[in-house]
Structure formats: structure tokens, C-alpha cells
Amino acid sequence: MEMHCAKQYKLVTVSETIDAFIFAAGLGTRMGPLSLALPKPAWTLGGRPLLHWAADSLKGAGCKKIACNAHHNVGAMRAIAQDVEVIEEKTLLGTGAPLKRIAHRIGPAGLLVCNADIVADMPWAMLREECVSKGTSSAWLLVPHTGGDWTRLYLDADGRVLLPLGTIGPQGPYQFTGASWWSAEMAASIPDDCFDIRDFLAQANGHFGVVAAPFPWLEIGSPSQLISAAAALAPLDEGRAPSCYIHPEAKTDAMISRCILGPGVTLDKGMKDRDAFWYVDGEGQKRVELAGI
Length: 293
Known about the structure:
By secondary structure, the protein is α/β, with parallel strands linked by helices. The protein has 2 domains: about 20-135 and about 175-205 and about 210-220, Spore Coat Polysaccharide Biosynthesis Protein SpsA, Chain A (Alpha-Beta Complex), CATH 3.90.550; about 225-290, no CATH class. About 20% of the residues lie in helices and about 30% in strands. The protein is built from 7 helices and 18 strands. The chain has helices at about 50-60, 75-80, 95-100, 125-135, 185-190, 195-200, 225-235; strands at about 20-25, 45, 50, 65-70, 85-90, 110-115, 120, 140-145, 155, 170-180, 205-210, 215-220, 245, 250, 255-260, 265, 270-280, 285-290. Strand 2 (about 45) and strand 3 (about 50) form a beta hairpin. The longest helix has 11 residues, at about 125-135.
């Protein structure tokens, strides 16, 4: 007698389309010793990792599938990513190759892109609508230049961004917000070994600038900027000690000034300190001088 065993399988349909991408794979060089504790996108404001601030802004624009890249301390990135897909980079790929790697997953609405160290409510819908309606291949979101050290960008008469940076044109100056939009075709045309996307865009035709009215935004790329952001956005949480940043998983009753306390740190009452970063690793609690923050 023959016996036939049938296996039942559940058919699962998974959408491979990515609506938005967050650059989160830098080495955290400007964060200095803070990268010993956490990669920059995992530091929190109001208990939310910086990665979530970027992702929530994109979700507000209707993005369903969001991905980010990761290189330094990938485990920590996966631990806080939640529904953001983490694409690991064994070697750092810069700002060009990561977009080329996901070009086949970009849908007809294009790809919204931002940096994990910018906290802002970007006008994503306006950027996407401008690009789709005009048939643009790629575009940077710009705002009128606010002065200071920001690089000045200019557009030609047709609205294309002039590169190399600093080239003066008839429209501008503007500054780049870190947000951009890409079509699948444009992303697919990026060379496999492109590290700096500006090298590719300098040769590409159709790289436009979409200019938005000024809106509040913060860049959080250094210890001093992290402290300032905590005071502005989380004064009862990470910014609860004046001129300091205290991670939600840190505890202190100490008298501190211009200090940053990483997760797991405990400083006892009566202790005094300033201009220092405290963190915990496999060997215990450690202190590093933070000069000039």
C-alpha cells in the first residue's frame, strides 16, 4: 500500500518595495567617544532613538516600508530598529552604493531619503509631489540659506543643483536639508563603487533642487549638538540636568555640568564632575574627557 504525505504550506506575500531609506551607517567620527557606547542613530531624545525620529517623520508622509543601513555596532542598531529594516554593510559604502543596492526595490512613487542625525518634520509630501509631477530623476530638498557655516548651494536657470558645491548660479544661495528623492532608474544608474553620491550627481543630468520654506530642524552630529537637542526637545528627560545629556537608562544625583551619561551609568550623590562622557562596557563604568563641548 502506497502512502502519500502532503505538506501544507502557508503562502506569505512580502512586499519588497522600499518607500524610504535612512542613512545610518557612518562611523560616528564627530560624536567622538560617544560611539563607544552607542552608534549615533541609537542615542535617544524623549526616549526615542534618533532613528525613530527620522522614521516617524517618513511615516507621517505615508511611507510603509522604511530601511536603513548600518555598519558600526550593527547589533545595537538592530536592537532599536523595530519595524525599520536594517541593511548591514560589512564595509562602509558611503552615500552612493547603498542606494544602488536597493534600486530594484524602489517603486513608482520613488524613494525618500534622509540622514539619521537630522530631527525635523520634513515637507516630504511636497518633495515627492514636485518630483513625480515634473518627472524628475532625483532631487535634493533645499531651504533658503540661513547663514553660518552651512555650505551654500545654487541652482541653474532650470532648477538643477550646481556642482561642485559652491559653484555660484542664478538661484540661491540655499542649504541642503539632508533630504532627497530618487527614482528607481536614477538609483540604478549609480556606479557600483560610488562612495560619494556627489561625484555621480556632478556628472548626472536631471539632479534638481526643490526649495521649501524654512522649517525647524536640528542636526545632531556631535556631543554639543546632542546636549543642545536634549535641552530643546527633552528638557524633562535626557535634558533634565542643565547643560548635560542623561540617557534614560542612566541614573545620577551627582552635581555635573557639561556631561553626557550613557546607558547603564550611575553617578552617586555628592559626586562632582564636568566636561566628561561616562559609559559602560564589558569592563565596567568608564569616564572620558570631553574637551571643548
